[in-house]
Amino acid sequence: MKATQTVRRILANYEGETPGVKARLCQMLMNGRLGGTGKMVILPVDQGFEHGPARSFAPNPAGYDPHYHYKLAIDAGLNAYAAPLGMLEAGADTFAGQIPTILKANSANSLMSSTASKDQAVTASVDDALRLGCSAIGFTIYPGSDAAFGMFEEIVEMRKEAAAKGLATVIWSYPRGEALDKDGETAIDIAAYAAQIAALVGAHVIKIKLSTDHLSLKEAKAVYKDEEIDIATQAARVKHCMQASFDGRRIVVFSGGAKKGADGIYDDARAIRDGGGNGSIIGRNTFQRPREEALEMLGKIVDIYKGKA
Amino acid sequence: MKATQTVRRILANYEGETPGVKARLCQMLMNGRLGGTGKMVILPVDQGFEHGPARSFAPNPAGYDPHYHYKLAIDAGLNAYAAPLGMLEAGADTFAGQIPTILKANSANSLMSSTASKDQAVTASVDDALRLGCSAIGFTIYPGSDAAFGMFEEIVEMRKEAAAKGLATVIWSYPRGEALDKDGETAIDIAAYAAQIAALVGAHVIKIKLSTDHLSLKEAKAVYKDEEIDIATQAARVKHCMQASFDGRRIVVFSGGAKKGADGIYDDARAIRDGGGNGSIIGRNTFQRPREEALEMLGKIVDIYKGKA
Amino acid sequence: MKATQTVRRILANYEGETPGVKARLCQMLMNGRLGGTGKMVILPVDQGFEHGPARSFAPNPAGYDPHYHYKLAIDAGLNAYAAPLGMLEAGADTFAGQIPTILKANSANSLMSSTASKDQAVTASVDDALRLGCSAIGFTIYPGSDAAFGMFEEIVEMRKEAAAKGLATVIWSYPRGEALDKDGETAIDIAAYAAQIAALVGAHVIKIKLSTDHLSLKEAKAVYKDEEIDIATQAARVKHCMQASFDGRRIVVFSGGAKKGADGIYDDARAIRDGGGNGSIIGRNTFQRPREEALEMLGKIVDIYKGKA
Amino acid sequence: MKATQTVRRILANYEGETPGVKARLCQMLMNGRLGGTGKMVILPVDQGFEHGPARSFAPNPAGYDPHYHYKLAIDAGLNAYAAPLGMLEAGADTFAGQIPTILKANSANSLMSSTASKDQAVTASVDDALRLGCSAIGFTIYPGSDAAFGMFEEIVEMRKEAAAKGLATVIWSYPRGEALDKDGETAIDIAAYAAQIAALVGAHVIKIKLSTDHLSLKEAKAVYKDEEIDIATQAARVKHCMQASFDGRRIVVFSGGAKKGADGIYDDARAIRDGGGNGSIIGRNTFQRPREEALEMLGKIVDIYKGKA
Amino acid sequence: MKATQTVRRILANYEGETPGVKARLCQMLMNGRLGGTGKMVILPVDQGFEHGPARSFAPNPAGYDPHYHYKLAIDAGLNAYAAPLGMLEAGADTFAGQIPTILKANSANSLMSSTASKDQAVTASVDDALRLGCSAIGFTIYPGSDAAFGMFEEIVEMRKEAAAKGLATVIWSYPRGEALDKDGETAIDIAAYAAQIAALVGAHVIKIKLSTDHLSLKEAKAVYKDEEIDIATQAARVKHCMQASFDGRRIVVFSGGAKKGADGIYDDARAIRDGGGNGSIIGRNTFQRPREEALEMLGKIVDIYKGKA
């Protein structure tokens, strides 16, 4: 499969990176209905860990079966499917080679006390990802948490190993922690900072949340006002986050958060597209809907990124 | 020994797993009076560590001798015998090859202050299990404990090593910790979540406790009500836990807790069977009874799983 | 030197253990005046670390010199001599091959604040023991301490290495910690539990203290009463501790604690003998007495174990 | 390129150091407009990590692009460019060989709570520096922080590895922590102490801040008075810091802190020069200005070190 | 150079030690004006780390230059020179082979808060010592500190590596910590205990402070009184500390603490000599004096150990 010029241009930004990493990024960028456009839609299913099985799968019980999600991602023509160790293992053989997979290598859960909840456990390794035929590892960092330094050190080590073994690294950069209030977690200055940190520690693909026009850090507020940074619309905020991701030299995909109406999801996708983002990573909003409805929604999102909707 | 089709179907769920792991799972599934049925009864004797020797063995002093439990498990025709390092070592040569063994690789005890009691010590290694001819390692995690992340990281590393060396992994997933009250430890939403976590970190066999119809997590309560998840009977709760174990793609065995009357134990076994569970892991209720009584009880439990009682 | 049948029967209990470990156990069991009887008397000199040099050696200043203790153990015809790294090194060449030695591999001291005093430092390694020609390593665990899990993990790793390199492991199992009061540290239920834990983590030789008829754990009290466990005499308590040591499948030696009168020491030895214990580990009560007096005392203890006194 | 006698004299101070380290120091000392003079001007761009992207780059948005800084350092004829992992990776191929680079190997950020802010995360490795063709690693220590011992141990290990692999080590020695108030962080006694510590743990190049004439440590105050140490002018303080850096046997570069007027910057450079310092490390004051203005400023600083301004 | 009989007798106490260690001890014992006498005078210069550069070197500014101290030790005909990594590196080539050096491998400083000040950072490695041609590593332990266990474990590991690589180990055993008051730090019972601990963890050379006749530990007081241990004079206390150092089987050198008058220093040396100690380790009292005065003082101290003053 020959890579398009758009994809080759994106790959060129990963200067000095191993051919293995570039090959895996290429594989994800060339896969599915958005293959070759430089845009990506990824299905992540780590909610069984984060929120428990019933909250995640009871709304559409077919989702209790790990095979369901492989099939959904394949049939919707997505770029990649991301999940924790057990989920991937349960279908790794049946669906081998049918869709690029991302092994989510650390995980949190809703059973911990608040003291312990600002961190994640490392629940898989680079060798697990190799064994399961994955294209990338996924890793969450919590900028703002007292545990953040430890998480940075974990992913820096793991990324080095992954790159040396030819795997790409996707970093979920989710501001959370002792120093942030609830509004701060989705504030635009924090979101841009989170993207910057992910880029600085070496992410190949950055996953951040869509943000609000709230500003959280005192020192940042002045700068946003003085320099008249446009954060009025979601598209403007996406654009600012792309700036913070080495002026667009890194692939950035956005998540929209909790389950919401279809129109809201489409608006999000259009804002990501218009702001120059690389795509969506969308989980509960698809797999908690009936399969046909989910396929239709994913189809429409793909069309939006293609500029057809 | 040719594996039955039932067993081969179960093994097929362990996609991409090493032949060594599958061979060991097969060995346990094909052993004893339930061999080939896909059902299992396991004898665990780690109470000497957990509760001390007198509380565990004084009711039936023959049990002070580690040989007693090997013999009990063999004579009852069980699938496997699980115990800590010292217990297995004390009979490893005499009973070599006569019953699959599971080396319990971490342990707690009743001597610690409450602060320290939400964790376990790693008291054996994968190489110990190989040396002693075991089929699997056993490992307890405490979802809900502040120490849970550390425990997850320990078992993920140990499971990887065990699988690479051809040993299966059994995870005791026991909710416990700072964030859970006493009722929460046996609540059905927590039990299902515990099963899910064990599956996600890569358990080949999951051991959980039978649960009550209590719901513990606020966010979960709404889901169980909205989605009308049936948790009214023990069989229904077992069924829900099997869903949470990758829709039955993982072997799950259930324990019943403290010593109780024989009828209660048989009712438990029937509920596990009717809910689609894979079997029982039953310790004090057998080895604290006189040997003949215990053999009779285990015989009846086996009959229940065979559908004859 | 041909091992006696008694010794061979004891060695047979170490099922699946390396020939190296069995050879070292045999060496200690066959050495000295009790050689071949299955009984042992060991001289431990770690009090310089635990209590400081003056408290340990000023009563008999000859003991400041490490050579003194080697000579005492050799001349008294004991089974083994146990000491920390520096003590053994200071005579390792002069007395090479003249008595089996046990390298005490962790140590506490009386200079720490109470917060830090529930743990020990690892102050020697298995390779140190090999280099110095030792027969075994010695290691203290404090069941009941918040640091106990760490200590268990240390000795489990160290024991594995020692066994692989052909050295036996002696565990000092001394209940101490946040969850125990002063009476609890010597209570019979705790002593038996401590012996059980040492056996479970893989001790070849267990060292515990003689206990009182006090019962400490609430849940244990009921069991001791209900099951009518005999703890009335020291001999009965020794017998119960042997039960807790895999029904006598492990070698157990007992210490008597602080310096006391000679008659008390002889009574202790008789109780250990009558309860089926394997012997005494006796330090301050010998090396703080003048050499001739100490030799006479050790001679009489040996005679007691031979049934002659 | 033949090294000047001045540079060879500096290199001779690194006694017993590997030829690799000396070659890299030589490379930096011989590069750019100050090449061969023994003076250095370095561009550091780690503010995206430390203060976030908008505060760092919004004043001159061209700086969002990592290529901008490579070009600025090259076009200004500087000695070296220092930045974190992601920043260097994003231009490592395009600018390979055009300017010596320093991989900043640990990083802090402004999102942490104050409790966690006295430390940094290790965010890159020596092997990363080798892979990216760097001349040195950079590492921050916080003398005065409770985390300082850990930071010292990290850099001592990393320096050893770097030197063995032929890379130089630059230490940012920034007093900060529980034991220091705001004035203490820039006090001259503390600055000299920080330089001394960096030298003692093995820095090849020391980076400290310009200091005030404040004295912070009680014991130090007396000495400065009794011995009549001259700390009245910035040049005198630079001179004292050079004394504290093994009497000038180590290269020391100074930073001036927050953005300030051009005249202040030139005064700083003259003081460094007159006090015998080796040069400036200057970031925000250049890259936050428009490129032409920054080039002019850097040109003038270079002239100052050449004694022409 | 043929070792004297006195030196050979000292070396014989290091039973079973590697020839490399013995060679290095021999090298230090045979060097300088006291060579062959079994006595040692060592120059330690770690005060730049401990107290900062101005407090250490401003009284005699020539000492800012690391070369100064090498020369002082050489010209005074001392046995060895001890300093941290950077200090040794700065003269390692110029003075190679001219005096045995001891690499101080851990360090504290006066910038830490009191919480953090009961520990030291490991700031050099055994391989650093080999690379720099050192004869020994030096390491401080703080018996009495909550961090002491960690320090013991560090030096036990490091000593093992050093001995295997043919380097001797000098332990600075300085009582300090949560459990000791100011008087306790220099009390004779604590000093003897500190010497004993250093010997037990394997020190080849022990460095302790001269002590007072204060007794600190309650249990020790009784023993000193009951056993009538002579602690009335400094010489008697030195003698007692030699007892505590395996009855003189280990080399012990004493430091006198803060700067004091010349006569006090000479009295100290005579007490050490008369009590049977091996010598002095003396820093500030020499290098803070003008060079000629320091040389004269060191000359007189050497004469004292030779019995000529």
From TrEMBL, chains A, B, C, D, E:
InterPro entries: Aldolase_TIM (IPR013785), DeoC/FbaB/LacD_aldolase (IPR002915), DeoC/FbaB_aldolase (IPR050456), FbaB-like (IPR041720). Its EC number is 4.1.2.13. SUPFAM superfamilies: Aldolase. Keywords: Lyase, Schiff base. It holds the Pfam family DeoC. It comes from the Bacteria. The lineage of its organism: Bacteria, Pseudomonadati, Pseudomonadota, Alphaproteobacteria, Rhodobacterales. This is fructose-bisphosphate aldolase. It comes from Tropicimonas omnivorans. Belongs to the DeoC/FbaB aldolase family. FbaB subfamily. GO terms for molecular function: fructose-bisphosphate aldolase activity.
